[in-house]
Amino acid sequence: MTMSSIEEVTPLVRKAALLNAVKHGGRAEVGAVIGRVLAERPDLKPIVSELARLCARAVKEVNALPLSDQKKTIEENWPELLEEQKETEAKKLPPLPNVEKYARVTTRFAPNPDCVLHLGSTRAIILCHDYARMYNGKFVLRLEDTDPHLKRPKLEFYKAIEQDVLWLGCKWDEEVIQSDRMELYYEHAEKLLEKGSAYVCTCERDEFRALALASRPCPDRNLEASEHLTRWEKMLTGGYAEKEALVRLKTDLHHPNPAVRDWPALRIVDIERFPHPRVGSKYRVWPLYNMACGVDDHMLGISHIIRGKEHLTNEVRQRFMYESLGWSYPETLHYGRLRVIGSELSKSKIMRLVDEKLVSGFDDPRLATLSALRRRGIKPEALRALVMEIGPRPVDASLSWDNIYALNRKIIDGTANRFFFLNDPVRMEIQGVNRTYVSTPPLHPDHPERGKRHLEVKASDRKAIVLLSSGDAQAMSEGKLIRLMELFNVRIRSAKTNIVEAEFVGESYEDARKVNAPLLQWLPAEGNVDTDLLMTDGEVVRGAAEPALSNVNVGEVIQLVRIGFGRVDTKSQGRIGIVFAHN
Ligand SMILES: [Zn+2]
Q1: What is the pLDDT of residue 161?
Q2: In the chain, count of helices (H) and strands (E)?
Q3: Strand order in the sheet with 285-287
Q4: Which residues pair with 140 in a beta bridge?
Q5: Cα three-residue angle 282-288-290, rounded to 5 degrees
Q6: Torsion of CA 559, 562, 563, 569, to 10 degrees
Q7: Would you say 487 and 469 are in contact if contact means Cβ atoms under 8 Å apart?
Q8: Residue 564 has pLDDT above 60, yes or no
Q9: How far does residue 290's CA lie from ligand 1's centre (Å)?
């Protein structure tokens, strides 16, 4: 690129960088900026490597600005661009099919309380809730706790799930718990047995499987209904042990998917060994997933089932039961799988990590549980924006944590007050300071009305002491000019591991900017608060924060300058615990 063309392209690159940064909560990405510039100026393709350098520099500059300054620059220069962006932000859900067929749109979110909820459940919860609201319908929370043996529910998870769903802002209109509805499943099992649409199978599991694979009936299938009702009674009263008998639904033995052929509907659980946490040993026959879910969807008047496409086969299975009972099947929306790169979204893995104490609990920031996200200061609004972006599409999607962070940053940037925090503070002695300096930066640069912080540096014998983070101190080199944020400029004389020596240079921010001096956060020598920062990899970074942090309440989301956002998690005995969210 010639000098003149660089000059010509620079404003365009800067605009693209600013716009990309604002769109992603303050941080532009070089690749996206290059893409945008090339879309506008395809003639620059032959010099793309030079353009890339230009973009990288612009991104670096733009990312160094606070989001508020980035927005201000766009507002001043290209106000129309912000409008355009607002429009794309207000995403709406596509309409539901066949709404007119139903008196009332009714949706349900139906988790098993055998674990807490994680990020993977957010889509189901928000879609089901928001669709119900969109049509002035009803949203049902249904706890599916009918497997006391393999997917054992735990009382603590019922409460945790309710709390998580409420946190997402998805208040339900009705809550049902399946273990309260056992008589209903029994009633329908009897109906199906009477009609000859179900039967009690006493075959060994492998024996049955071999027959089903060959599309052949087991010896029980064609017995009289009366025989099955007798066996059913025997199941209920303890005449069979676990695995000796189960109720199967008659489907089609020639169905192309062998997993659909005569699926198991109710089975016996050794309830003395595996008592249910809510109803104890009251019931020994328990409905399996498709039986309980199928009956409930009909009985609760669910009009639209919105769930992951891993349930497609369950729809096929349940339709046989609906047909036998003369019911019509609800509308279904099966969305694609959602993968979050770098996180474990499997309940069994989460349970194992907690059980083996490899993490501190279900809200350990290493996990992608909703309680962990909440603890870090990820806002439900960010998760809602994420769900609106991906919607109920059937295609698989994978997203990165950066997507979530970008959405969250937009939400918390305006509310999070700023504080200085130093990892493992190191003393800096500054010569030539001839008076006491009081620095009063605002709690938030966009909101002066929230008040100011107060950082005081006393001088004695023209010497002052401040603290720096050990990371910054290690990066010091002799002769380098640095600016202590909101204070003054110093030049480094020497930097040893435990002390940095410097001299006072001046107060002018402009002078520091001219030479691109690093801007460092610092603390006064005394009066700071011991602060632990719990990172997302489980590491605890010990350090100190400025005195004003003591006034922050537990639960508040804050920004540690040059480090990132976090949520105040604990305050005790003069120590503050912060859980890191993202940068
Ligand atoms: Zn059988």
Answers
A1: 98
A2: 18, 28
A3: 198-201, 246-249, 264-268, 285-287
A4: 108, 174
A5: 140
A6: -20
A7: no
A8: yes
A9: 19
Token pair in block for residue 131:
């669709």
> How many angstroms is it from 323 CA to the middle of ligand 1?
22
**Rounded to the nearest whole angstrom, what is the distance from the C-alpha of residue 293 to the centroid of ligand 1?**
24
Mean confidence (pLDDT) of the chain = 93
The Cβ of residue 42 has, within 10 Å, a number of other Cβ atoms equal to: 8
Ligand 1 centroid–CA 315 distance in Å is 24
| Residue 360 DSSP symbol | S
> Whole-angstrom Cα distance, residue 405 to residue 565?
10
Q: What is the pLDDT of residues 120-172, one digit of tens each?
A: 899 999 999 999 999 999 999 999 999 999 999 999 999 999 999 999 999 99
Alpha-carbon gap, residue 88 to 83, rounded angstroms:
9
pLDDT score at 35? 85
What is the rounded average pLDDT of the residues 433-447?
Answer: 94
Distance (angstroms) between ligand 1 centre and the Cα of 218 equals: 5
- Phi, psi dihedral angles at 186 (to 5 degrees): -60, -45
- Where residue 78 falls among pLDDT bands split at 50, 70, 90? confident
- pTM for this predicted structure: 0.82
Q: Say how far apart CA 568 and CA 266 lie, in whole Å.
A: 48
- pLDDT at position 39 is 81
pLDDT at residue 85, as a whole number: 60
Task: Give the C-alpha separation, 536 to 377, whole Å.
Answer: 12
Residue 88 pLDDT exceeds 90: no
Instruction: Compute the distance from residue 229 Cα to the ligand 1 centre, in Å.
Output: 15
Question: What protein residues have CB closer than 5 angstroms to ion ligand 1?
Answer: 201, 203, 218, 220
Give the pLDDT confidence of 272-302 residue by residue, as tens digits.
Answer: 999 999 999 999 999 999 999 999 999 999 9
How far does residue 178's CA lie from ligand 1's centre (Å)? 27
Ligand 1 centroid to Cα of residue 196, in Å, is 14
Nearest to 468 by CA among 528, 534, 527, 524: 524
Q: How many whole angstroms from 452 Cα to the centroid of ligand 1?
A: 76
Q: How many angstroms does the Cα of residue 314 sit away from the middle of ligand 1?
A: 21
Give the whole-angstrom CA distance, residue 427 versus residue 436: 18
Cα-to-centroid distance, 292 and ligand 1 (Å) = 21
Residues 171/138, Cβ–Cβ less than 8 Å: no
Q: How far is the CA of 201 from the centre of ligand 1 (A)?
A: 4
Higher pLDDT, 49 or 321: 321
Determine phi and psi for 149, rounding to 5 degrees. -95, -65
- Give the DSSP per-residue string, 75-139: HHH-HHHHHHHHHHHS--PPPPTTGGGSSS-EEEE---TTS--BGGGHHHHHHHHHHHHHTT-EE
State the distance from the centre of ligand 1 to the C-alpha of 561, rounded, in angstroms: 68
From the CA of 192, how far away is ligand 1's center (Å)?
A: 16
> DSSP character for 549?
G
Cα of 202 vs centre of ligand 1, distance in Å, is 5
For ligand 1, the distance from its centroid to the CA atom of residue 415, given in whole angstroms, is 63
Query: From the CA of 190, how far away is ligand 1's center (Å)?
Result: 18
Residue 128, CA distances (Å) to 52, 155, 306, 383, 392 in order: 44, 24, 6, 14, 10
